[in-house]
């Protein structure tokens, strides 16, 4: 039997071993606590507290970073789970109070996604955003940092061409939009769609007044009076209106679903070709025009939701209406670098200095 002296030595060695193990597990500033050198028994009060803390840290996800059950685990398992993650699962997960904010993004647009998210976070609506990823790189990039807030609806378009305006890839990218939106409506949720080359300067939801089916913005640059009509504008020279398909809000009504169904049919009837480089906006306008008598439509105020052709090119109007702008769309210009430069010039490129305000961080 060991002597008293030997037992004391063994006990001291055991305590040192336990301390060494815990120091390896928590390498960050172990000496910051004056009690760190005290031994910790796994079955003592302190040991149980440490174990419970580990369980809580590893088993609970903070609000805004939560993910559906079963999506954590090894990296291969997680990747597999995200590939199988469906829109039907993602919508109720991301929606708040029956409302979802949706964008569709391919990998080249990730910086714009982050810029848009920062502006939404400033209005405290980031918790209801769902990113519809148009390639697997985007799906994994978003869910790796913000689990559960990105979903890919197969098949994924070609990521190399999807961002080039006027290309068949761009058409394939945008023509999927009404199908996604219709599915969300059929699940019973309000849905706002935004292009990610937008910036929120204020909260848009107070402007979504009433119980209309579909809310949208005019893409014309001509200045409207502040009290302009909220009816669908009259058709232009091409026999249709010029409504922007990049900012839409819909309630899950039969009228809104009808517009999406008509939009899908119009896109199918006007496929892309080299001779006719189609995009989704004319088809959206035809859908609105053909359903106007059956659907409750609402044109949002121009001063709050100006097109880029007005906001970035008519500084007299911008100064006269200062403080009334809500969402700015960086359209009427093509090319990543040109869009970024214009955002920079107007103080709307936020990712360089405020990336940490986004739930994606510096992506």
Automatic annotation (TrEMBL):
Pfam family name, one: Nucleotid_trans
Keyword Transmembrane helix: yes
One GO cellular component term: Golgi membrane
Domain of life where this protein originates: Eukaryota
Protein's organism: Vitis rotundifolia (Muscadine grape)
Residue ranges of coiled coil: none
Biological process terms in GO annotation: rhamnogalacturonan II biosynthetic process
GO molecular function (one): UDP-xylosyltransferase activity
Protein name (record): Glycosyltransferase
InterPro entries hit by this protein: Nucl-diP-sugar_transferase (IPR005069), Nucleotide-diphossugar_trans (IPR029044), UDP-D-xylose:L-fucose_XylT (IPR052636)
Residues in Nucleotide-diphospho-sugar transferase domain copies: 125-343
TM regions (residue ranges): 42-62
